[in-house]
Each structure stands twice: as C-alpha cells, then as structure tokens.
Amino acid sequence: MPAASDATAAAMAEGRNLSKEARAGDTAPAVAAAKPQSQSEVTSEILKECLQYVEVPKLDVDFVRVSADEAWLALRAVLSLPDGVNSAADLDVEISRLRIVVRMAAGGLPLADADFPCAADPDSAQVVFSRKRRTLTVQLQPADPKAAQAAHDAL
C-alpha cells in the first residue's frame, strides 16, 4: 500500500476522506535498501521501542545515620527484587553522582530509577544482594556532608 501524502495524512487525522482524484498525486517514497539484521538486533530494537511505554518504578532513597554519634549521614536505597532475579549477575546497577538505575542484565529492562536528594560519591557505593530477603541494598556517602545534612533537614 503506498504511503499517504501530507494532504491525505492530514485528512485522515481529521476523519475526512479524500476523493480518488485528490489522492492521485500521492506517490510512494523510494525505499532504501535495508541492511539485513540479526534476530537479536531486531529484538533489541523492539525492546527499546516498547520500553518507551513502560513506567519504571521509582526507587526510594533515604538518609541513614552511619556513625555511633549519628553525625554522619549516608544514602541508602533498597530494592525488592522481582521474580526471575536469582543472583547479582542478573542485574546491572548504574550509579552516578545524582542518580541510580537498576536494570536486568539480559535485555536491559529497567527495574528501578531514582534521583539522589543530594550529590553522592559513586566510588563509595556498597551494594549488597540478599537472596534470602530478595533485596538489593545500595549505600553510599554523600559528596558533600553539609549539603547532605541540609537536604536531610529539608525533608
């Protein structure tokens, strides 16, 4: 079926039909020769298209006290793991100064996404996978303890 011209597309969007004479000027655009793709490339492209419509669960990030005198704050995020996650190898965890994203290692399906309430030090991240509790816990130090305290006090 030939592609519709701009006039035909506009008419269709408005719920109108164009006569055969009005459509006579429609021509199909030239189709470039497509490079054959492997099934995994096609599957990956389809997954990327579908992920546009998936709502990624938000991950709650909280402050916790980590010293005996309770003067030092850390950031902690706990994710309840879905069925199908049996080991840490099933997950891909991306941590930056301002965000954490947890995805399935196979296929890249996002499991959780969260912004930190203050800048964090990604190099200080401690990630604990618990098969028994079916959780993934991420704890890291804030980049600026004073800014972290201010963000904590603002909550």
Structure in words:
Helix content is 23%, strand content 26%. The protein is α+β, with helices and mostly antiparallel strands and 155 residues long. It has two domains: 6-51, no CATH class; 61-154, Immunoglobulin-like. It has a four-stranded antiparallel β-sheet, covered by helices on one side. Strands 3-4-5 form a three-stranded antiparallel β-sheet, with no helix packed on it. It is elongated and about 55 Å long. 13% of the residues are buried. Mean pLDDT is 76; it is low at 17-23 and 28-32.
β-strand amount = 25-35%
CATH topology of the largest domain: Immunoglobulin-like
Reported CATH architecture of the largest domain: Sandwich
| Helix and strand sequence | HHHEEEEEEEH
With strands numbered from the N-terminus, the spatial order across the biggest sheet is: 1-2-7-6
**N-to-C span:** 58 Å
Q: Count of helices?
A: 4
Please tell me the total number of domains. Answer: 2
Rg estimate, integer Å = 25 Å
What would CATH call the class of the largest domain? Mainly Beta
- Helix content, binned percent: 10-25%
Which stretches are poorly predicted, pLDDT < 50 over at least 5 residues?
17-23, 28-32
The SS-based structural class is alpha+beta
Mean pLDDT: 76
Q: Report the sheet with the most strands, covering strand number, pairing sense and barrel closure.
A: 4 strands, antiparallel
Q: Could you state the oligomeric state of the chains shown?
A: single chain
Q: Total number of β-strand segments?
A: 7
Broad shape: elongated
